[in-house]
Amino acid sequence: xxxxxxxxxxxxxxxxxxxxxxxxxxxxxxxxxxxxxxxxxxxxxxxxxxxxxxxxxxxxxxxxxxxxxxxxxxxxxxxxxxxxxxxxxxxxxxxxxxxxxxxxxxxxxxxxxxxxxxxxxxxxxxxxxxxxxxxxxxxxxxxxxxxxxxxxxxxxxxxxxxxxxxxxxxxxxxxxxxxxxxxxxxxxxxxxxxxxxxxxxxxxxxxxxxxxxxxxxxxxxxxxxxxxxxxxxxxxxxxxxxxxxxxxxxxxxxxxxxxxxxxxxxxxxxxxxxxxxxxxxxxxxxxxxxxxxxxxxxxxxxxxxxxxxxxxxxxxxxxxxxxxxxxxxxxxxxxxxxxxxxxxxxxxxxxxxxxxxxxxxxxxxxxxxxxxxxxxxxxxxxxxxxxxxxxxxxxxxxxxxxxxxxxxxxxxxxxxxxxxxxxxxxxxxxxxxxxxxxxxxxxxxxxxxxxxxxxxxxxxxxxxxxxxxxxxxxxxxxxxxxxxxxxxxxxxxxxxxx
Length: 498
Description:
Blueprint: E1 3-9, E2 18-26, E3 31-35, H1 40-43, H2 45-55, E4 64-70, H3 82-92, E5 104-106, E6 109-110, E7 116-117, H4 122-131, E8 135-139, H5 143-146, E9 154-157, H6 160-167, H7 197-209, E10 213-216, H8 223-228, H9 239-252, E11 263-264, H10 272-276, E12 277-278, E13 283-284, H11 286-289, E14 294-297, H12 305-309, H13 312-317, E15 319-323, E16 328-332, E17 336-341, H14 360-367, H15 372-376, E18 380-383, H16 401-419, H17 428-434, H18 439-452, H19 456-472, H20 480-488
Parallel strand pairs: 3-4, 5-8, 8-9, 10-17, 10-18, 11-14, 14-17
Antiparallel strand pairs: 1-2, 2-4, 6-7, 12-13, 15-16
Helix pairs in contact: 2-3, 7-16, 7-19, 19-20
């Protein structure tokens, strides 16, 4: 038979669209042509495949070989099509039975020796292959990743010879096995934070309602320490959430700790594509790598303003769409933003010892690096004050992360039982249903919002935070104290008094 078809998978965001590798052998001058919108790496596969077949003691046909990667309008990149191309040539030339390729999908890059190498975005391909009802063959280097999706029937091989022996029925391939279980050792504990009762309280509220948080205060007051403890207060990932996180890291080729919430901490020199993703073949950025976890932006005003502005829509919608001339991709980014900043360029605005030498104009320009629309999307603005030396003396009696996480878990459970989502995700219409307020509370809130000059978006965010405060106390209705405390988290213009 001079025609063979092998099924494989391409990359398109977190999806893995099917690709049919069609191989046809015909008479004419020997040569190999690849069509179907292949990138450079795919075009170079003809040299890798030729050497791999010869070094694996197969015959490379001295005929005209045409390889079509269908559908033709889908861009194909990387070396993931090496293995299906090699198997298609072997089946079309009769060196392996073409019938053995039925019900099979495969991806993998070939070395010149015939060894199989791993590729990125293996997990989306494994999931799509299972849903298509086919068996999956891939490199052993990708086996542990494919095994994260247990329903998939994934087989692993070290080289092309092993794959061919399996297809000929001589030596079945072993199944993919998950790696050793990851033991989650929680080294970062909230007990390490001395003092800071207001900031600790805000961190608990942010964890319970999945609210965005801005910490501002002088250098060395523990803003980074507090932010790094947030993941220790969050509930463990469910199986579906862990799979979502693994998908993003698989596409990005980033290391993954299965079952742990991501904590991403990009440097303030990061570009806009580094945060939201990009490239000619779109890849996820930091906000998508922080999906289901925490994105921490330290020294927030030091980020370029255009970089910060790209966060506005992802914060609202929980998804980012990257459009390029050749490809488009959607990446989820339901992250919790925690930012930290100094109150002024020198960092000591409001210090009673007079260490701040910044002029009002310098402070205005410094804070002007942050746009109002971005600050409006951050639910809580919390001052972090310096601690006194006597607070460092003796054993710490602060609550541990486990103690606070228990209250956070109870509040989240109450919210999900009531509305099926976190408080931060409530829409304006859902706020009317789940956060009803009395006439007097409405008038108080309206007066406060008018005095502080806050927007309707801020009104909704105050109600969401108040709803979380009530959930932490296991109360069904919002109290006046909840509204007052929630409003207290909306002011960034207060000087820090030691």
